[in-house]
Amino acid sequence: MTTPAFVFDHWATAHQQRVETVLARTLPGEDTLPERLHEAMRYAVLGGGKRVRALLSYAAAELASAPPEQADSAAAAVELIHAFSLVHDDMPCMDDDDLRRGKASCHKQYDDATALLVGDALQSLAFEALANPGAAQALKQVQVLAKATGSRGMCGGQSIDLQSTGKLLTRNALETMHQYKTGALIEAAALLGAYAADHTYQPLIDTLEQYSQHMGLAFQVVDDILDATADTQTLGKTAGKDALQEKSTYVSLLGLDEAKSLVNALHAQTLQLLAGFDNKADPLRGIAKFICERPF
Fold first, then answer.
1. Distance of alpha carbon 99 from alpha carbon 236, whole angstroms
2. What are residue 9's phi and psi, to 5 degrees?
3. CA of 117: how far to CAs of 157, 171, 262, in Å?
4. Which of 108, 120, 179, 219 is the most buried (most CB within 10 A)?
5. Quick one: pLDDT at residue 171?
6. Do residues 28 and 121 lie in contact, with contact meaning Cβ atoms separated by under 8 Å?
7. What is the sign, positive or negative, of the torsion defined by CA atoms of 154, 155, 158, 163?
8. pLDDT mean by block of 10 residues, the chain; 296 residues
């Protein structure tokens, strides 16, 4: 019997819908006390975004031979952390943006205090979702996500970013900042999916670490390119803010053409990294193509 050809768009749509259902079930209902906070949490999380991090969790779980239901909590947790970071990043004390995912940022739709609490509550809920005593590697998942979220990961990267506004960074410094701010959570998404399996071999973890490091960097470079070239409607957030805030980016440092060449090189390296794997790695290949070939 011939195996049907893998179609990434179909796989991605199915898993995006899956994690949306899981998130809707995981988030408290709007009629649950305190209603305004829970309404704002659902506003910040549901019905938007590409769910790239959740897709990475499902793809890595598939490579590790774990069924999707075992990866649901990982996919939801990483999306909750991502949403928390966006809510806080958009606040006036951070990046100060009024638009996110094509609609008003959480602090604009509600207020600053509510947005602050939304981020805090989403972070807590992410770890609650992961803390499943029946999962063989739940403790490892919690450790991975905690490190990726904290001062040695996403929060640390945001701190470096805030301190670097208006300064010209070297390429190494820029890469370090984004390894923390963007790359750490992308790497965590892949590792959480792999650890959703009952047992995970170290060579697979090593491969996923390299894969996600390539993709974390590519994701950021493409973001920098799009910020410089796309309009606000396309981005779903305010375009051109990096230049207005005098932030160092891969475009300002390398130039547009070299930044695009870097993305192409990272994509090629990623495909080479996966060359020894069978069709279980097709979702990871599809995600790499999606990240690297977003129109710019």
1. 7
2. -60, -40
3. 21, 35, 38
4. 219
5. 92
6. no
7. negative
8. 81 97 98 98 94 98 96 98 96 90 93 97 97 89 97 94 88 93 96 96 96 96 90 67 76 94 97 95 97 77
Residue 33: left if φ>0, alpha if ψ -120 to 50, beta else—which one? beta
CA angle 176-181-186, nearest 5°? 105
Q: Which domains does the chain possess?
A: 8-292 (1.10.600.10)
Q: pLDDT tens digits for 201-214?
A: 999 999 999 999 99
Asked whether 218 and 210 are in contact (CB, 8 A), the reply is no
> Can you tell me which residue has the tokens 């670490």?
209
Residue 25, CA distances (Å) to 21, 28, 42, 75, 278 in order:
6, 8, 10, 13, 34
pTM above 0.85, yes or no: yes
- The answer to whether 253 and 174 have CB atoms below 8 angstroms apart is yes
> Is 94 within 8 Å of 112 (Cβ atoms)?
no
Exposure string over 8-21, b if 16+ CB within 10 A, otherwise e: beebbeebbebbbe
Q: Which of 182, 181, 149, 194 is nearest to 57 (CA)?
A: 194
The pLDDT of residue 240 is 64
The Cα-based distances of 281 to 13, 62, 194 in angstroms read: 17, 8, 12
